[in-house]
Amino acid sequence: MFTQFFGNYLLKKGVIDADQLLTILQNQSTVKIKLGTLAMCEGYMTASEVEKIHILQTHVDKKFGELAIEEGYLTPEQVEELCTTQRPDYLTFGQALVDGGYVTAHELEDLMIDYQSEHEIEEDDLNDTQKDSISVLVNDVYTFDEFESSSGCVNYVTLLFNNLIRFIGKDFTPLDAQILPEYATKNCTFQNIMGDLQMFTGIDMDVATSIEFASRYMGKTMDEYDEYIEASVEDFLNLHNGLFSVNMSNDVGIELDLEPLGHVVDSIISLDSIVFYIPVIFPFGTVNFLLSPNIFKG
Q1: Is there a contact between 53 and 36 (Cβ–Cβ < 8 Å)?
Q2: CATH of 131-292, one of 3.30.70.100, 3.40.50.300, 3.40.50.1820, 3.40.1550.10
Q3: Alpha carbon of 236 to those of 163, 172, 216, 230, 261: distances in Å?
Q4: DSSP assignment, residue 284?
Q5: What is the pLDDT of residues 2-44, one digit of tens each?
Q6: What is the pTM of this model?
Q7: What is the pLDDT of residues 101-130, one digit of tens each?
Q8: What is the distance, to the nearest Å, from the Cα of residue 257 to the centroid of all Cα atoms in its chain?
Q9: N- to C-terminal Cα separation, the chain
Q10: Of 181, 183, 173, the residue nearest 141 (C-alpha)
């Protein structure tokens, strides 16, 4: 999750804009992490040393690792380690930034340090997918003061991002939340959560994005919007809400019930309180996740 939120961090810093973020997400799957980036990540080399090797490579026909060993920056054992050890996803995102010319190696190094410092992220946390670690980051980015249980909302959103990674893919960036008195839907599936914690939940996107979302969820390519696409999106929301309900019961003893799913198209969701929504950018489009303290009957 630290990779996904790093994109949001760069947007807020003005390092990239939304169109550039989308391009990076679309290109991520083809990016190959360079040895210099790996060496910099492990603290074996500085950005200046990496750039020096790159300059040397323009004069001699040798691989990065060979030159780094010759210059005394790396040992043969370190090169072997860097070439064989699995690396965290955030490095792929960082490499895409550098390859696209959005930042230099120096700038990437500084941005990663600032990002970790601002959110008090330890190096080990960058590979951590534990709920507690991600909840801290979600709590840093989103405020749920309008809800009766802000901790319940943090748990909901934390699980949501984990389920997106699990069922849809890791190539997304969640943006800052928007808070509105009402929300204009495109193609929205919703479900009310009742019981000790009451909450309206929804997932909204355009038709083209719905097709790609459902294709990933079902694990097969779908070309046209039909009842199977709608059912797939409904199944994702219902599954997520079901897992959330089980977790809340097991972890904190809060018992919840799920109302039947609803669906609205090109409608206005207007509640007695605010509609809180989180846009999540995927390479195939933007998915908006909706939350509200009040229920919606459609």
Answers
A1: yes
A2: 3.40.1550.10
A3: 9, 17, 11, 10, 11
A4: T
A5: 778 889 999 999 999 999 999 999 988 888 888 998 898 888 9
A6: 0.83
A7: 999 888 988 898 888 888 776 655 555 444
A8: 28
A9: 33
A10: 173
